[in-house]
Design brief:
This protein has 258 residues and is of the alpha/beta class. An eight-stranded parallel barrel has the order 1-2-3-4-5-6-7-8, surrounded by five helices. Helix 2 links the parallel strand 1 and strand 2. Helix 4 packs across helix 5 and helix 5 crosses helix 6.
Length: 258
């Protein structure tokens, strides 16, 4: 008695594979198993910089805002932000972009439209104002992830923690420019959310050098966004470059010694 070979009745294997790829597109995004709580974001809307820096594997996500979009000559539209999200999320876990509008309802509607691309991986930024807080409350109830932005005072960490948003972004450099100690302000914000038992992350922004990131990490802060120049500065160590060159020279000599 012959047994008929197993067959897929409705979809060939090739067609099934094509369908699965359409539903679950290939992505280069990968979270290293030993990253711990560290989250580094690349703060630019320049896709050429994404191409240059995101493959290095150190970035958890990308952050943008209308000002960065303008600098990169990228339209500040929902459609374009969906396109940018599609690109960024091929390499990272999160894409942060800012809502806009004159009223809380405007901010809410725009945030809903932007986040519709991927509610699990797109984070919506709103200013930590009374209007922004109202919009954030509605967005959070609708299942949208939120980052309060344009934070200049440690007391605003109380708003973020009590609102239950995922991130708040203090502008360290600009805080210092305005006469306060931006470093200490960020450190105290971390103490506030820790003391309250809140899971809100202090996403330190307006960072102008890599050493400040290292020092803040020593204080227990673990979430930072910075521009491409600072990202390259993290790799700027001549002694390491010299050692790497020596290794390559030794390898070249060794490959021709036999």
């Amino acid at each position: 008695m012959k047994v008929a070979p197993a067959r897929i009745n409705h979809l060939s294997i090739a067609a099934l594979a094509t369908l699965l790829l359409h539903i679950f597109p290939l992505s280069l995004s990968f979270t290293p198993p030993h990253r711990g709580g560290c989250r580094l974001f690349l703060d630019t809307a320049d896709t050429n910089e994404w191409d240059a820096l995101l493959p290095r594997g150190m970035f958890y996500g990308v952050t943008t805002n209308p000002t960065l979009l303008e600098r990169a000559n990228e339209p500040c539209t929902v459609e374009n932000l969906h396109k940018l999200a599609s690109t960024a999320l091929q390499y990272t876990d999160e894409f942060m972009c800012q809502s806009w509008g004159d009223t809380a309802d405007d901010l809410f509607q725009t945030g809903m439209a932007i986040s519709e691309y991927d509610r699990e991986r797109v984070v919506i930024k709103v200013p930590v104002t009374a209007t922004g807080a109202e919009a954030a409350s509605k967005l959070t109830k609708a299942g949208v992830r939120i980052c309060f932005t344009a934070c200049y005072n440690k007391k605003q960490a109380l708003i973020a923690a009590s609102s239950g948003v995922e991130y708040i972004a203090p502008y360290l450099g600009r805080i210092t420019d305005n006469g306060k100690d931006g470093y200490d302000e960020c450190r105290q914000m971390q103490n506030i959310v820790d003391g309250l038992g809140s899971g809100t992350r202090i996403l330190v922004a307006s960072l102008r050098d890599a050493d400040t990131i290292a020092k803040l990490a020593m204080e227990g802060l673990d979430t930072f966004t910075f521009n491409p120049d600072v990202a390259r500065e993290l790799f700027d160590e001549p002694l390491t470059d010299n050692a790497a060159e020596e290794f390559e020279e030794a390898a070249a000599r060794g490959s021709t010694s036999n």
